[in-house]
Structures are given as C-alpha cells and as structure tokens.
Amino acid sequence: MPVTPPINQSVAWAKLRQHQCSTRHLHMRDLFAQDPGRFGKMHETFNGMLVDFSKNRITEDTLKLLIELAETAQLRDRMDKMRRGDKINVSENRAVLHTALRLPENASVRVDGHDVVPDIHQALGRALALAEAVNTGRHTGARGDAITDVVNIGIGGSDLGPKMVTRALEPYRQRIRVHFVANIDGSSLMEVLRQVDAAKTLFVISSKSFITPETLYNARAARAWFLQQGFAEHELARHFVAVTNNLDAAHEFGMAAENVLPMFDWVGGRYSVWSAIGLPVMCAVGAEHFRSFLAGGRAMDEHFFSTPLRHNIPVLLGLIGLWYNTFYGAETHAVIPYSHDLRYLSAHLQQLDMESNGKQTNVHGERLEFDTGAVIWGDEGVNSQHAFFQLLHQGSRLIPCDFIVPANSHSPLEKQHQILVANALAQSQALMRGKTLAEAYAELESLDSHQRDMLAPQKVFPGNRPTNTIMIDALTPFNLGMLLAMYEHKVFVQGAVWGINSFDQWGVEYGKVLAKSIEPLLGNNEAAAHDASTNALIAYYREHHEYLHQHS
Ligand code: F6P
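ok -> structure tokens follow
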C-alpha cells in the first residue's frame, strides 16, 4: 500500500513552520487592539456552549494554514472511516465506535457485516434496568436489604471515566452512594470497605479484558471480605456484577451469565464510559440523566461529523493545540475546570489524550520526527490559582490552557459562583495581556525609586499566554456529554493529523511484563538477576519490608 509521506514533509507543514517564524513575535494584546472584531471571528457557539478561542497566538492565516494541514492529512476522510466502522485501529484490527454507543436505536453501523446498534441498545437496556432496580430498591441484597452503596472495582478507563462523570453529576445523584476502587494498593479497597455494609452493597467489577491484575486482585479481596461478613457463596450473586468484553473470564471468576453486562472490543477503555462501564453513573443518577448524557455526546458527534472544519469545535481545539505542541514546542496542556464537580476531568483527560496520542510511530510503524501528544494536566479553579498559576503567569514556559466555566452553579451560593466566574475570566485576561514594566512601575509610585527599581521587574507579566475558554450554561448531563465528546474528538483530530493510531496502547504492556518477573523476588531470597539498581531496590525492600512489620 503506497504510504503517504509523513505529514511533516507536506507543503502545509512547511508553510506553518514559516508562519510560526513570521508571527511568533506578535502579542495578543496588540492583536486585540488592532482588531475589535477579533472575538467575533474567533469563537463558536453550539447548543448553549461558547468556545472562545480568541485568546490564542493565532491569526486568520494561522487557522487557514492549520486547516490546510488537516486537509492534507485527509482528516475528513479519517472521520468518515471512524464513523462508519472501518477498522482504523489497525494494530488491533478493530473498528473504533465509541460514537456508536451514542446512536439512537434506529441507526445502523456494521462491523464485519453485522449491525452492532441493536447489540449496543440491548446492553444499554440491561445496564439501565439493573441501575433502575438498584435505585428503586427492587434489586435487594441477599438478605432483602435495599442497596445503598455501589462499589466500582476497575482501573484506567474502567475507573477514570465513570468516576469523573459520577462526581461531575453529583447534583443529580438520587440515593445510591458510589465508591471507586482502582489501585492494587490495599488502602484503596480497605478505605471503601470501612464505609459500607455488606448486606447493602453491590460490587461492580469493571474490566473490558477481565485479566487486569489490579482489578482481579481487588475483586477477589472484596469477595473474600463479603464472605467474612457472614454471607454464603450462594449469596454472592446478589452483590457482585461484572462489566466486560471477556464473558469466559468473568464466568471463570464465578460470575453468573445474568450478572455479566457486555461491552465491545471496538470501544477503547478510555472511551467506554458511554457503555455499560457507565453502570456506576446510571446507579447514581438514573436512566433519564444517563440518556441525557448520551444525547449530549451524540449532539457533539453530529456537530463534529457535519460542520465545516473552520467552524468545527473539536477540529479547532485540536488544531490550535497542535499549533502550540508541534510548532511552538509547548510540551504540556492544562485543563482547568472552574467547577468543583469537574475536579476529576483532568485525570480522565490524561488517559484519554496521553494513552491515545503518546506515541512516536505512525500507523505504518514509521518513527515520527516531531513531537506528538502533549502532557495533559490540571486541577480545579480557583484552587489552581493558589497552587501553580504563578508558573503559568511568570514562568519560562508556554503552557496553553483550557478554562471550563459553567455560567450557573448547582449550589445556592450565588455570590460565590459569581466570584468564581470572575476569577476565570480575569485569569484568562491576565494571561493574555500580561503587565508591562511601565505598568508595574506605575503601580509602585508610592515607593522610593530604589524600591521601585528593585520591585517593578518582579511584577512584570509577559502575557501572550494562550487560553481557550469554554462556557456552558450549567453542568448538566447533556452538557457534560457534549464536553466529553468534544475532547474525544479533539484527541482524534490530533492523532489523525499526526498520522498515529490513537486507539491502541502497546506502551502499557511492557511494565506489566517486567512486574511479573520482579514480584516473586520481593517474596523470596533468590538472587535477583536484574540491573544493579533494580537488584538494590529489591534488596532494600526485602530488608525493610520485614522491618516494617516487626516494628509497626
Ligand atoms: O492502561 C492499560 C489499560 O488497558 C487501559 O487502556 C484500560 O482502560 C485499563 O488498562 C483497564 O483495562 P480493563 O478495562 O481491561 O481492565
């Protein structure tokens, strides 16, 4: 198959490289001063969402060149291939159909000739029915108690997505308390078991592969704990369900078929919260709100698949992010939700983005000669202002940020919400305009000249630090669905332009294999035949592990 040349050998790439050289001296403060209509041309609205990308180091020409790059990469064609179920995850020979999870029942998408939409809605129906039964008390524990607590045992996409969405929709939670156990560190499970009553708890073992050690160890420990609470083996079925693509492994674990909810191999873990992996969300907020969340995702899908690139929100965010990452050498991208309920968003986006685009070879296995996936990080605003905003404002690095701002809060504290929003807008403005030395001097006129000479340079803010501000009217299930699908498609856009497969994750396998050879050495005194560092660390553990137990 003729291999298209890597994107960095394209004319569009060369033009962008040149464009960066000729525009990098421009300051946003001047761009706004020269063009009062700048915001008007550099924002998009969709279903009540406002995406303001005017505070970026771009001009109309930048956008034109970025879109030319996307067209060179045949982005639209790759989007169509994903949507219709082509096996674009070439290394695993799989389709990529998290978008199909959001389709209505009357839609149709074929994988190997088989229409998967009926399967999707059958699985969704089962999950929603179980959630409703738990929520209404119809699904009782083995002794007849209504369930009060759901414990999700899973990791990666079987944890981060459900946890982010469940916590983001806390204002919509009905009666079930939902807990998340992920780490194989026993503290994670023990912390939760101390809080729940076995008679009233449902454990959800979430694992697409059902071979993930962390999840299986925690599931076995939870099961042992449950039996230690005085329950018999035959009573487990009322308290343990599984969500997996590997029905055989779940059965081998002891799960009855009727307690196993299916998911699909053409949905990546980090894209799976829309499937039965979202069961904890359904138990928390109920079927109606979960369906609204799906509808928001579908609305963004329709926008993404039908809107011209210049007005396509995920395409714009993807290309602008690529502009900094690849042409300015910005290595990270911060996501700052000005919303306590969205405090887990950055952690979820870390897996979504970095496990998708943290790669150095393209789909053909060729090594890429340019930077790809950014390091995604962030925390809730305004807390972040008291943690790392100093570096964002006066540090030496270019760190593009997304600010996510709900116009309405679910809390009754109106004034506090107004202050929160004011901070988001002010920080974005300060990062854009900065503060000149002359402005800093002017603020210090009460000081003598020596003090002013010393202090003024410390109060200079270079500015020209880009932010996208994404405002939604409120953090509703629908808007959360739009927001999450927006980020999924942003990741797709960047991977498509770079020419990488955003849907496999071979990089997570190697460490697991090495762990298997090291772990036994931590429990015996056999000679360790690893590198000197690993051998020494094993020796230290052997000595101190015994020590800790003897002296704790
Ligand atoms: O981190 C590797 C990974 O395979 C992720 O892609 C996945 O979300 C996670 O582990 C958990 O996998 P599973 O759902 O199969 O247990």
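Residues 155-158, 207-209, 212, 215, 269-270, 355, 505, 508 surround 6-O-phosphono-beta-D-fructofuranose (CB under 6 Å).
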